[in-house]
Every structure is written in structure tokens, then in C-alpha cells.
Amino acid sequence: MICKTHEIGALGTYKYVVVLSCYQGKILLSRHKERDTWETQGGHIEPGETPLEAARRELYEESGAAEYEISPLCDYWAGKEDESAGANGMVFHACIRTLVAIPESEMAEVRTFENLPENNMLTYPAITPVLFCRLREEAN
């Protein structure tokens, strides 16, 4: 699998949202109840939702973020290396001020990290590092 980033709005249609979150100056990741690996918050855009609405919903459901600033970062495409199949998404960056208990959902816990964990500890190792690299580039 590969992942490519694009300017905001470049891809036009979206299936997914991804939220790159920070809390108290650290990376905030979530762990699914059925996995031992860490992932960003995000998921499918529901019918009738805008990407921003989906990002806000997923951020709360998967992290318990109650107060935060969120903004679009970039578009992304992820799929097969030969680009024969894949999906578009929009990436958001969230700076979280307040966390509450995670709502009953598929997530077991959230945790902060000084740095992104090694690829073998990430649920989506072909996607997550690419998106955080884009975040670092945009910050500079």
C-alpha cells in the first residue's frame, strides 16, 4: 500500500477523514479494542456529512476530545502500489484542549506519544507516517 498527499481540495471527493491530533504538546493516538496497534482518529464520511463534520464526529468518538481547534491539512490518496485501487480522504489537524472519557465505541484507549511509534506499532504503517510528515512540512 502507498499513500500520497495533495493540496486541500485537489481530489474533490472523499470517502474517509483522518485527524492528526495533539494533546499537551504530544501526539494523541487511539487503540482499537480488537488490535494492539495505534492509529489516528478517523473513518468513513457518513451520507450527508461534510468532511469537517465527519472529522469532528470521529475525533470525539475515538478520543473523547471535548474542546479543540481543528483545521484541514491536506487531501490524501491511499491504495495499491500500482494505483489500480484506492480511496481519497481529507486530513485534518486537531489541537485538543480537553479530553473526556471515550464514548462507548470501538476504541479501547487513547495515549500520548512524544514521537510517532515504530511502524510495527501502527495500524496503518503505510499511511500514518506519510501524513505526519506532511504535518511537519506544513508547520515549517
TrEMBL record:
Tree of life domain: Bacteria
Domain Nudix hydrolase as annotated: residue spans: 12-135
UniProt KW keywords: Hydrolase, Magnesium
GO terms for MF: hydrolase activity
Reported cofactor(s): Mg(2+)
InterPro entries: Nudix_hydrolase (IPR020476), NUDIX_hydrolase-like_dom_sf (IPR015797), NUDIX_hydrolase_CS (IPR020084), NUDIX_hydrolase_dom (IPR000086), Nudix_YtkD (IPR014078)
Family (UniProt): Belongs to the Nudix hydrolase family.
Protein name: NUDIX domain-containing protein
Organism: Hominifimenecus microfluidus
